[in-house]
Specification:
InterPro entries: DUF5753. By secondary structure, the protein is of the alpha/beta class. The chain is built from 10 helices and 6 strands, in the order H-H-H-H-E-H-H-E-H-H-E-E-E-E-H-H. The chain has 2 domains: 5-46, no CATH class; 56-248, Endonuclease, Chain A, CATH 3.30.870.
Length: 249
């Protein structure tokens, strides 16, 4: 079938629906009878569920749809950013500017839809059922000093006080660190009880990587642990962010 491990996991755990064409292909592999094939294909059509983000259509690239679903299913998210404020922590104004720079070919309406999706994803941090995931963020100090307005900085201070959010800054003073050797951004996703394998997500201008081999995940976890030791404590990070906001006021 040439499916990735994350896709198989999401199908087997019911986190995503099955397309009738995929069901038909699987039935051929298992040599199911024509009658059973037709029945299962019909069942797939009846039970096909769609996440809230599907209503935004092409505002979400196809390669990003899988991540949105995985993000919603994760129990813990560990995100490192060296360039931008993470999407889950962006304000509407900041997110709009990001789209204007990243996708100048977009129309105003397309940008608005893209930002709406980004803001919609943030609901995962405050949901009650299922329990909101733990979000741990490591930000390079450069993120805070590159095109970030006062409103966005103040938002970071506010959201960092949520009980399920940890925001820490890696200051310039530490010099080179493991994060400088990566693509500049990655997220490690862990799932409830460890029953499903953790995976690493990293995206770029034209696509994304989903890394789930144990060795790959371990490499990124080791990099995370190294950077975590270099980062300022949460209170110190808030103080630094607040001071940068004051400089801009």
């Amino acid at each position: 079938m040439e499916w990735s491990t994350p896709k198989i996991w999401r199908i087997e755990t019911g986190a995503t629906s099955m397309r009738s064409l995929d069901v038909e292909a699987m039935c051929k592999v298992y040599r199911a009878s024509p009658e059973l094939t037709v029945a299962l294909m019909g069942l797939a059509k009846e039970t096909k569920g769609r996440g809230w983000w599907h209503s935004y259509g092409d505002a979400i690239p196809e390669w990003f749809e899988l991540y949105v679903g995985l993000e919603a299913a994760a129990a813990r998210l560990r995100t490192y950013e060296a360039q931008l404020v993470p999407g889950l922590l962006q304000t509407e104004a900041y997110g709009t500017r990001v789209y204007e720079v990243a996708r100048p070919d977009m129309t105003r309406e397309e940008r608005q839809r893209g930002v709406a999706v980004r803001l919609g994803r943030q609901g995962v941090l405050t949901r009650l059922t299922p329990r909101a995931p733990q979000l741990d963020v490591l930000l390079d100090e450069a993120v805070l000093r590159r095109g970030v307005d006062v409103e966005q900085l103040q938002h970071l201070v506010t959201v960092s006080r949520q009980p399920n959010v940890s925001l820490r800054v890696i200051p310039f003073a530490v010099g080179l660190h493991r994060g400088n050797m990566t693509s500049g951004t990655f997220t490690i996703l862990d799932f409830e009880g460890g029953a499903e394998p953790s995976l690493v997500y990293s995206d770029g201008l034209t696509g994304a990587l989903y890394l789930d081999k144990p060795g790959e995940v371990t490499t990124y976890e080791e990099a995370w642990a190294t950077m975590e030791k270099l980062a300022l404590a949460e209170a110190q990070s808030r103080k630094l962010i607040a001071s940068i906001a004051e400089e801009q006021a």
